[in-house]
């Protein structure tokens, strides 16, 4: 079985640990059940090649094992091949893609697997493995999602204006999400929380059907500034783009910078890509509306 799963951008500025957007850049995972008991063959091409482990600790394998455990059937042996296009530790949801991809792949490999591991159970397990739901929600559903934690995790997919696309500026080196989360304070001033709530609410409207509000709506008060020491060049690019009226943010936990645009082939997108800093890579991307797909 083969599944493909999209990159995602979380937070989108003020929507810390809640808002997420699926992007048209996909990892492809192919899994096969082997009859030889105890066999595990993992191969990786593209992002993470030569760096991620090729044993039971590989994130896709761990996620597949979690799914098999819920379903109650571990296969005798397993072969996994990953074709990775989502860069790792850049704020583009590589870990969520690995988790959602692994859970869905395992479910597809077991006849009737979706009867036991239904969509909600799968989403809960994915958010539990990741630790927060904002990337796994769009990786699973596609499009623009609002997620959070209550009695378990919840997620709602809402519409995204078809005029909207993005440009991502990806630095050569990454920052681990764990490191970026470690820079956040325990508490924030009430005034910042209130300002952030207003922008988050506006951002939902802006992404739904009012992109003219995106610049104001993407101003964050909860995390980007605290993370500046770990990614000064990214914050400098955000500042520079915003000063020129571009709705730019740090993607997820960074250090990728995401700028909203109006179509992958538009003049605005061409102008934005010309601003890619030396040594970084830049991708104009459409919004993915499919989420994870079993081929
Ligand atoms: N496809 C994959 N296969 C195996 N391991 C992966 C894969 N994707 C991510 N990982 C593991 O997760 C780590 C990156 O996760 P991390 O949460 O730090 O960043 P991210 O998911 O790319 O960014 P963000 O969560 O900010 O969007 C990698 O260094 C690797 O250990
Ligand atoms: N909301 C998360 C996204 C990265 O996984 C963060 O900013 O830490």
TrEMBL record:
InterPro entries: GHMP_kinase_C_dom, GHMP_kinase_C_sf, GHMP_kinase_N_dom, GHMP_knse_ATP-bd_CS, Homoserine_kinase, Ribosomal_Su5_D2-typ_SF, Ribsml_uS5_D2-typ_fold_subgr
Record domain GHMP kinase N-terminal: where: 59-143
Principal cellular location given in the protein's record: cytoplasm
Entries under Gene3D superfamilies matching the protein: 3.30.230.10, GHMP kinase, C-terminal domain
Residues bound to ATP: 87-97
Metabolic or biological pathway: Amino-acid biosynthesis; L-threonine biosynthesis; L-threonine from L-aspartate: step 4/5
Broad class of enzyme this protein falls into: transferase
Enzyme Commission number(s): 2.7.1.39
Pfam family name, one: GHMP_kinases_C
Alphabetically ordered keywords of this record: Amino-acid biosynthesis, ATP-binding, Cytoplasm, Kinase, Nucleotide-binding, Threonine biosynthesis, Transferase
The reaction(s) this protein catalyses: L-homoserine + ATP = O-phospho-L-homoserine + ADP + H(+)
GO MF, one annotated term: kinase activity
Residue ranges occupied by any GHMP kinase C-terminal domain in the UniProt entry: 212-261
Localization in the cell: Cytoplasm
UniProt KW DNA damage keyword: no
Transmembrane segment boundaries: none
Homology family: Belongs to the GHMP kinase family. Homoserine kinase subfamily.
Physiological role: Catalyzes the ATP-dependent phosphorylation of L-homoserine to L-homoserine phosphate.
UniProt-recorded name of the protein: Homoserine kinase
